[in-house]
Amino acid sequence: MTQHNGHTEGAYQILISLGLPRAQHNERSALCLLALLNLTPDKTWAQAENPLIGITPIMDWAREHYGKDYAPNTRETVRRQTMHQFVDAGIALYNPDNLLRPVNSPKAVYQIEPAALTLLRSFGTPSWHDYLVAYLAERETLANRYAMVREQSRIPVQIAPGKVITLSPGSHSELIREIIEDFAQRFAPGSVLVYAGDTGEKWGYFDAPLLASLGVSIDLHGKMPDVVLHYVRENWLLLIESVTSHGPVDGKRRAELAYLFKNAKAGLVYVTAFPNRMIMGRYLAEIAWETEVWVADAPSHVIHFNGERFLGPYGS
After folding, report:
1. CB–CB of 242/172 below 8 Å?
2. Model pTM?
3. What distance, in Å, lies between the first and last C-alpha atoms of the chain?
4. What is residue 86's predicted lDDT score, i.e. its pLDDT?
5. CATH 3.30.70.260, domain 150-304, yes or no
6. Mean per-residue pLDDT over the chain, rounded
7. Burial, 14: exposed, middle or buried (Cβ in 10 Å; 0-12, 13-18, 19+)?
8. What whole-number distance in Å separates Cα of residue 175 and Cα of residue 242?
């Protein structure tokens, strides 16, 4: 991959990781982010800058540095379908040089927000993940802000010591919380959260660059498991389905996940999590061989369906 394409792909991963809605997961928004950073193809992310830049200059910049020629009538699309969401998400500031400038003035400018600039300068470095977790713990994602009216009833989930995100209310999210806070601590200590689905939003939490570093570039049309953990010590990706109403990791689902993660540089472990044994009993006949089952009301045990034990031998 060239540096040219790499920056665009990196910007795309960042937009997903920062929780922007899917309508902003596109080349236009990626190029707008790069323009806010003046990240020309010859620069590294550590060299990102914070110029004041307007809509037309953003479009000119994309043409000059990335060969993307936007028609003049695209200006409103850039403003309303990308920059407006960047400002709402707290990624960009609007007229920081003159807060009294009239709305939609031809002199209107945008600037990357300082905390976002610090975060993005770490992209591609070992510290990116820790910075991302800290940033998201302090900033509501745009998707969460759209759901503000439901915020009071959302379920807090600790994704790292002292770092919390929230998921939409319901038994499904409650089980996801138990997977991350209980199962992971017991059976994959020190693991890093890569992805957590949400019943209310497409992405509850997603560190796309971390997954990409493990060889997996997600097709957004592929159905992700409910939780993905990277068990760093063993270099395993734990692909976990949270079952409260839909099915477990059966043979068909196992094959789908194997295909979705076929390029992974980590071993794949398939896990189905149930809230209790009564619900597990309904699906027992469907569970695929060579997968794991964890039940939240008996959290200290994992049931292994045949094959070699993935957690090693029992002690005497």
Report:
1. yes
2. 0.62
3. 51
4. 92
5. no
6. 86
7. buried
8. 6
- Look up residue 260 and give its two tokens: 């979705």
Beta-bridge mates of residue 2? none
Element containing residue 205 per DSSP (H, E)? strand 205-206
Tokens of 316: 């005497």
Using the structure block, give the residue that is written with the tokens 């792909």.
9
Q: Tell me the C-alpha distance between 112 and 32, whole Å.
A: 11
In angstroms, what CA-CA distances link 6 with 3, 23, 61, 79, 121? 5, 21, 17, 25, 15
Q: What is the spatial distance between Cα 26 and Cα 85, in angstroms, rounded to a whole number?
A: 13
Helix (H, G, I), strand (E, B) or coil at 56: helix
Nearest to 56 by CA among 37, 20, 83: 83
CATH class, 3-121 region? mainly alpha
The pairing of strands 110-112 and 92-94 is antiparallel
Both tokens assigned to 62: 């994309």
The residue behind tokens 């600037």 is: 111
CA 202 to chain centre: 10
DSSP 53: B
Q: Taking the domains of the chain in order of start, what are their residue ranges?
A: 3-121, 150-304
Say which amino acid occupies 305: F
In single-letter form, the type of residue at position 297 comes to: D
Residue carrying the six token digits 């570039």: 217
Question: pLDDT, tens digit, for every residue of 137-156?
Answer: 877 654 455 445 445 566 78
Secondary structure of 4-35 as H, E, C letters: HHHHHHHHHHHHHHCCCCHHHCCHHHHHHHHH
- Topology agreement, domain 3-121 and domain 150-304: no
Dist. CA 11–CA 124, nearest whole Å: 11
CB 58 within 8 A of CB 77: no
In which residue are the tokens 């009993």 written? Answer: 281
